[in-house]
Amino acid sequence: MHRSRGRAGKPGRARPEPAVLHRAVRVTLAACAGFYTFRYGLERPVSATYALFAAVALGVLARVEGSARSRVRTILWTLPFAWGLVCLGTVLAVHSWTAALGMVGVGFAVSFGSVGGPRMVGLANGLQLLYILPCFPPYSPDTLPQRLLGVTAGLLLLAAAELLLWPEPAPPDYRGRLARAAAALADLADLAADACAGRAVAPGAVTAATDRARADLDELRFSRVPVMVRPASAGAVDRALTHCAVALRYTGPQVRRILRLARARPYPGAARLTEVTARALREAAAGVLSAGPVPTTDTLDRELAAFDVGRAAAPQDADRPGPGAPRPAALGTAALGTAALGRAALGTAALDAAEGARFAVRAVRVGRHAALPPDETPADQRPGPFWYAYDPAPLLWWRRFRANFTPRSVAFRNALRTAGALGAARLLAGGLDLAHGFWVLLATLTLMRTSAADTRMTLRPALVGTTLGAIATAAVLLGVGEHPLVYALALPPVMLIAFAVGPALGLAWSQGLFTLVVALVFTQLAPASWRLAEVRVVNVAAGAAIGILAGLCAWPRGGGQDLRRRTADLLEDSAEVLRETVVVVTGTGPPTGALHRARRSVLLTEALYAQYRSERHNPAEDGPNWQAAVLTGQHTVRGAEPLLARIPPGTATLHRGGAQALLRHADDVAAAFRRQAAALRAREPAGAGLPAVERARAALVGELDRAPAPGVDGRVSLHAVDVAVWLAGLLDDLQQIHDPAAVGARMTR
User: Fold this and answer.
1) Which residues 6+ apart lie within 8 Å of 619 measured at CB?
2) Which of 247, 527, 619, 667 is within CB 3.0–4.6 Å of 360 for a Cys-Cys bond?
């Protein structure tokens, strides 16, 4: 066992955080109160055992987060499930094979339930223990009432302790992050509106606002958010908050594009729309907080419609810059060849930013349970982006579970791994007739990780800590002998130290101290010798070995095993979406469901990336910018939705009769997506796919330079510019995946 270090050059002592210490006190008091009441007050050792382990299960093994009231609600909500698991374990303990089959079923169901959101993720280990404990001998169905009484008392005591002893305030939630990001984007949009109107904008102000917006948007990434605070459940509110974050991340680059384009020429119409966009973002920032007013999209809808009509009616060569004006930079890093096209691209960027803000406001309304208008998505393109707002909650949960019931889902694979390992551990413990065999399952459950490498790294500190704890336990048992009062007096302080100091000192200390805790418990239930310590070491070693074997046999590389394939699939699905979108808006074909498939692909990739970030990896082998790949898929879907809603089929052509030209360039962009996907699969060096990106961009800009200026074909040409700007923006996103500079900077952080 080793201590964590303090400041450089000086030995330091690890100290538990106040919240950890308070939680340890609550769990210790609840567990000991239930244990001593039943063991010594009522002479019911069975109830005493279950009261103690129920409090430990939800207080230590589980992660119940939130305010005090929220934690109490979660504990009380768990109580019926605890009764069911105890009943099931008691009945199936009749044979080892029935208990093992039950363990497989319970292990899979509880683990797979994590797709329902972070609350289920936090409860999983605690719920598993509530089945593990009763599924071992002795087979005593007549003691079921005592077991249920103990579990009920333990959980109720824990709930009371959560409410009365140092009740924790509500932690900063995701809504606050969304509010800050939306407000920062609103400030940046105000500067963009000033630039569009021709008003002077200080470069320092733009830089400061841009940096703040980027930082606040970066805080919306799930990798920056504690697991228990993430809006990741299947419910409509959490889905809406997640979509609000996606909309804000989509809007940010559009506002920055407005700032770049507005340097070349003013555009009063775009200035007005951008001002309304800033106002809508500010209203979304206030509305996403539960106490703020619920925003509406009425004003933004009117301005969007007016701007879309006005930009087609206004002469596109108005406000042409003078001879010394800089050439407008538009399509991401590319440049447009004419001032009229530059103005059209500026209008497109303003439209895209407004569409992103409207999407964010509507997501806020869903998150606040406000009424939404009927779904306007055409029947052949459904489900629309807010489909979940129109479905009942049970159906949403069913769809979430059904969508993840596939080997491509990381939740499904983890559930299979967990179920197999726990089932094997139960068979081994029963077949070898191991004393206190539930320790084998507990070790498997707590030490197994999502990759074999991570599980193997936990083995050494776990065995070292358990061994040293067993030595200390044997010394105590030999020195104290048969004096239960000594053990009863020693249990509370040792338990408090184990739960408070153990996590701060590391896994070895946690295992060693917990070994001493369980010994002090069982010596009060039945006479025990120093051999109890030996049993503990053997069981922990067996459980850890089973966890490693399970990891070696089932997806041993964890999230890293399939992240390349999954990300490559996402890029290929995105290629299908962008091509299908262009096919529809140019009138050359019907939709084929690519958008729906890409939405699901984004969800699966996000889940796999989240697991990947929780595992240990060698930075030198970390691969390309995975976060950029996920954002590319999100931006593809988020950009396709407003285009399909705004552009009538058959109206987006680069020139009269030129639908095939835009479709050809969509094929080039899709080919660049597929080339990047192939580079990921083949583990090619960073930048291997960039030539395809540059070729697609050059061809797209070249076609725009040859096309008639917007105004010759009116809305037709403007819609073509909308699509072209979207495609070029996707090429910019795509470039970040294998950009050597971006990858190198990320590896040096």
Assistant:
1) 747
2) 247
Report the 10 Å Cβ neighbour count for 236.
20
The DSSP 8-state label assigned to residue 60 in this structure reads I
| 559-747 CATH | 1.20.58
Phi-psi region of 649 (alpha: psi -120 to 50; beta: other; left: phi over 0): beta
CB neighbour class for 145 (10 Å; exposed up to 12, middle 13-18, buried from 19): exposed
113: phi then psi, degrees, rounded to nearest 5? -60, -15
Rg of the chain, C-alpha, whole Å: 30
> Which strand (E) or helix (H) includes residue 57?
none
Q: 235: Cβ–Cβ under 8 A, 6 or more apart, which residues?
A: 117, 393, 396, 397
Q: pLDDT tens digits, residue range 14-71?
A: 555 777 888 889 999 999 999 999 998 888 999 999 999 999 988 888 888 777 888 8
* Cα torsion angle, 158, 160, 163, 166, sign: negative
How far apart CA 548 and CA 560 sit, in angstroms, is 17
Residue 311's φ and ψ, nearest 5 degrees, are -70, -25
Q: What is the DSSP string of 293-350?
A: PPP--HHHHHHHHHHHHHHHHS-TTTT---TTPPPPB-STT-B-SSHHHHHHHHHHHH
Side chain identity, residue 182 = A
For 629, residues 6+ apart whose C-beta sits below 8 A from its C-beta are 567, 570, 571, 605, 680, 737
* Among 621, 630, 609, 628, residue whose Cα is nearest residue 747: 621
Amino acid letter, 368: R
Say which amino acid occupies 412: F
Domains in the chain: boundaries: 18-170+405-448+452-553, 174-391, 559-747
Using CA atoms, how far residue 184 sits from 1, 152, 208, 215, in Å, is 47, 48, 10, 9
* Alpha-carbon gap, residue 537 to 534, rounded angstroms: 5
Q: Omega before 231 cis (within 30°)? A: no
Instruction: List the one residue out of 403, 399, 412 whose CA is nearest residue 113.
Output: 412
Residues 6 or more apart in contact with residue 275 via CB below 8 angstroms? 189, 190, 193
Whole-number Å distance between alpha carbons of 314 and 122: 57
Degrees to nearest 5, angle at CA 622 with 621 and 626: 150
Question: What is the rounded distance in angstroms from the CA atom of residue 609 to the CA atom of residue 562?
Answer: 10
Q: pLDDT class for 170, splitting at 50, 70, 90?
A: confident
Judge contact between 632 and 600, C-beta under 8 A. Answer: no
Instruction: Give 90-119 pLDDT, tens digit per residue.
Output: 999 888 889 889 999 998 998 888 787 777
Residues paired with residue 335 on neighbouring β-strands, in sequence order:
329
Tokens of 347: 């209008």
Torsion 308-312-315-317 (CA) sign: positive
Tokens for 352?
A: 């895209």
Residue written as token pair 């939630």? 173
Strand partners, 329: 335
